[in-house]
Amino acid sequence: MSHFDAATAAVQAALDAGARYADARVMHRRYESMSARNGDIEELSQNEDAGIGVRALVGSSWGFYAVPDLSDGAARAAGGRAAEIAAASARVAGPGVDLVPAEAVTASWASPCESDPLSVALSDKGDMLAHATKTMREHGSDVAEGLYQIWDTSKWFVSSEGHRIDQHIRECGAGISATVIGDGETQRRSYPSYRGQYGTRGWELVAGLDLEAHAGRIAEEARELLAAPLCPAGETTLILGGEQLALQIHESVGHAIELDRILGWEAAFAGTSWLDLNQLGTLHYGSELMNITIDPTIPGALGSFGFDDEGTPATKRDAVRGGRWVGVLAGRDSAAVAGLDYGGSVRADGWGRLPMVRMTNVGLEPGPHTLDEIIAATDDGVLMDINRSWSIDDRRLNFQFGCEIGWEIKNGRRGRMLRNPTYTGIGPVFWRSMDMLSSETVAWGTPNCGKGQPGQVGHTGHPAAPARFTNVRVGVRA
Fold first, then answer.
1. How remote is the C-alpha of 442 from its chain's centroid?
2. How far apart are CA 5 and CA 27, in angstroms?
């Protein structure tokens, strides 16, 4: 059987068993990662799997069933089982729900890729990590680590409404970190971020990072941090680097605008959201500089795709425009419940998981300034960059973040280095204080976003640039 044949058989079996809607995803996934420590390769991981996952809708209830078998009999059995599970749930659930309409399409899509990352010689990849970590050791790092990861995913999607879509998504990324140990103090510096940089591109992304060229610098900065003064405590003007702002967007905006969380569907594990649908279109989330988009069409960004896992085509939408909250991340069922007319943000991390609302590329549109201009316009403040720790409550409202490195800003100039910089705030208060924003945007990739029960790991993108915030509490009081 072809992959489309297996998905079609599963969908038909679900309909024959009483489902009013059904869809099936066949997936073939390959994964490879390698890590190095102190100049030596530490671990190589390679795995591959394939299977089919079927959703069936009966009344207001979903049923889901998945098997690692693409034969006709197994596919049909999975479809029937999904419908049985949905029917059992429907007996104790409320009235049926509609799905937001979606045009049935036949289509193919593939992410851009100049150099197939799985075809690059393992020896070349290993040499890259070994040389970078060796260089960090030579420049003073006590523990020097490097990592790359590669995902190669093919999908075939069929729905009872007539969808027939195949996609090929290749993702990869890499990063290095240097850790130094002092007397009662440990410091770390990372490049290009604390977890590396990732995207839906080929090996050209990793090659462009040029890890070894930055290895010596970050090791030296990590050692400098041991002797740097602590970040002072108090309220001040805060400038965040783009990488840290990307995580700020992820935690205090991206998760908060997930419609399943707003509706309370995710309360059991991931928490809910402070947002109220009655305020959609009127709530002032941030300052006028705050323009957040949901955009899975960005070429090469980690949250990009051609179609989500419900067959909805990738479409750019506003989440916040001019500081006003105007949009959410939604699926066809949650959008219908909320009275909205769009979905497009549903994905699963494999054939064996039920698709759910996930972030795509949730990012901040660029502003009119540069980082140098922001620093020059700041009389007194702190610049922080590269995430080190994060904590946020289960409504995505109160947060505390720590960064790897900070710098004192005095009279429009970057001054001495600061260690253990931290800041805290309340989401809408923080975002309303943003008064300068850079145009130097990078689409940062987050390959480790957790959500769901059973847990799923999502790949998300966050375009962000350096920005300035006023009256922010920084540091830790003695």
1. 14
2. 13
Tokens 């009999």 — which residue?
Answer: 73
User: Which stretches within 239-378 are classed as H helix?
Assistant: 242-249, 259-262, 332-338, 371-376
**Nearest-angstrom CA–CA distance, 238 and 249:** 16
3-state secondary structure of 329: strand
Residue whose C-alpha is closest to residue 66's, from 318, 467, 352: 352
DSSP assignments along 397-433, one per residue: -EEEEEEEEEEEEETTEEEEEEBS-EEEEEHHHHHHT
Is omega for the bond preceding 229 within 30 degrees of 0, making it cis? no
The structure tokens listed for 379 are 């009389």
DSSP category for residue 231: P
Strand partners, 181: 186
Q: How far apart are CA 358 and CA 346, in angstroms?
A: 6
- Please report how many Cα atoms fall inside a 13 Å half-sphere around the Cα of residue 159, on the Cβ side: 20
Closest alpha carbon to 160 in 28, 58, 19 = 19
Cα dist from 437 to 51, 237, 361, 373, whole Å:
45, 13, 19, 10
Q: Going residue by residue through the chain (478 aa), what tens digit of pLDDT does each one get?
A: 799 999 999 999 999 999 999 999 999 999 999 999 999 999 999 999 999 999 999 988 999 999 999 999 999 999 999 999 999 988 766 666 789 999 999 999 999 999 999 999 999 999 999 999 999 999 999 999 999 999 999 999 999 999 999 999 999 999 999 999 999 899 999 999 998 999 999 999 999 999 999 999 999 999 999 999 999 999 999 999 999 999 999 999 999 999 999 999 888 777 899 999 999 999 999 999 999 999 999 999 999 999 999 999 999 999 999 999 999 999 999 999 999 999 999 999 999 999 999 999 999 999 999 999 999 999 999 999 999 999 999 999 999 999 999 999 999 999 999 999 999 999 999 999 999 999 999 999 999 999 988 899 999 999 999 999 999 999 987 6
